[in-house]
Amino acid sequence: MARNLQGLLRLAAEHSENAATKPMDPKDAEWLNEALSASTVDLTKQLTNDVQTLSSHLSSSEPDLNEMKNVIEDLLTLTEELDLSNDFLIVGGQDVLLKLLFCGPPSLRIDGLKLLGNITQNNPRAQSLYTENGVLARLIMLFEEETDLEFLRYLLLAISCITRGYEPAISVFLESKGVDLVLSVLIREVKIGKSDKVYRLVSKGAFLVYCVMQELASKRIQSESFFVVHKVIDLLYLLDDPQEHLLATLTLLLYPLGSHSNIQSEEPYKSFSNWLQRHLDELRKKDDPADEERRNNIDCLLKVLS
Fold first, then answer.
1. Which InterPro entries does the entry link to (predicted)?
2. Residue 236 phi, psi dihedral angles, 5° rounding
3. pLDDT, greater one: 77 or 8
4. How many CA atoms lie within 13 A of 176 on its CB side?
5. More confident residue, 91 or 39
């Protein structure tokens, strides 16, 4: 293969745009066709082989974890393509992924969540499948039980990929008290300790909550907005820096209410405007273009709360 690649590079250089134009030698043309044929991979066949290999290891009493890891990495690359994601489901990947997620080696659970995220992201067919077969509901329940920050982050990723933009999944998420659960776990973890891992988890969770609330607002679906507002403010108070999607969620929920929000009249939140103003002043001093969205959201919230 290396020799073929070197030959292909040589031919590419010889017949590049800046090279002198001349007919290709028939022997070179024949070799090129053979090299390209040898380099062509049937991706669906490769996907099928990977699924079968992974299934075999999952059924074994002594699975080769290194080989399983390599196979999953290959599947992650292949399933970046939507067509191959759907092929994954057709060739038996659905059952294999379920087994990997819920019965597989603990060291590969995160890899399983990454693969689930790949399969379901922007893919209504897969979102429907993993919503209707109960996987989404099981993942949401699992979120409350887990304490490993890295696992929680990829668990959020998988839940988010199944949920975002797919109304039946959003309904399951809400029925499972997903918004409350996510915000409660984020509050719990921030109280335990602030670290880069915790802040990455907060970013993932805040983005998911914002997407869900945005979807509800766009479809005019009723939600317990004041409950969410309280939780978001509780979480913001714990952070050293106001997280952009938490601010966006508050703006989304409070702006339509205007002065009727009455959030300022509640004892725990009377100082919230001062908190917002302090952070707005700090962001204005920095004058970082990347903070423009946060500045705008805080400014909007201050007007609503005034």
1. ARM-like, ARM-type_fold, Hsp70_NEF-Inhibitors
2. -60, -40
3. 77
4. 23
5. 91
Task: Answer whether residue 210 shows pLDDT above 50.
Answer: yes
- Residue 85's nearest CA partner among 29, 146, 162, 31 is 162
- Cα separations (Å) of 293 from 161, 287, 288? 24, 12, 10
Query: Average of pLDDT values for 173-181?
Result: 92
CA distance linking residue 265 with residue 252, whole number of Å: 20
Rounded Cα distance, 135 and 58, in Å: 19
Q: Report residue 83 as tokens.
A: 């067509």
3-state secondary structure string across 221-287: CCCCHHHHHHHHHHHHHHCCCCCHHHHHHHHHHHHHHHHHHCHHHCHHHCCHHHHHHHHHHHHHHHC
Give the three-state DSSP class for 66: helix
Amino acid present at 242: P
pLDDT for the residue 4: 46
DSSP percent split of the chain into helix, strand, coil, nearest 5:
80, 0, 20
Please give the structure tokens belonging to residue 144.
Answer: 């409350």
Q: What tens digit of pLDDT does each residue of 191-208 get?
A: 999 999 999 999 999 999
Nearest to 54 by CA among 78, 30, 84, 75: 75
Task: Give the span between the Cα atoms of 197 and 57, in whole angstroms.
Answer: 31
Beta strands in 67-169 (DSSP E): none
pTM value surpassing 0.85? no
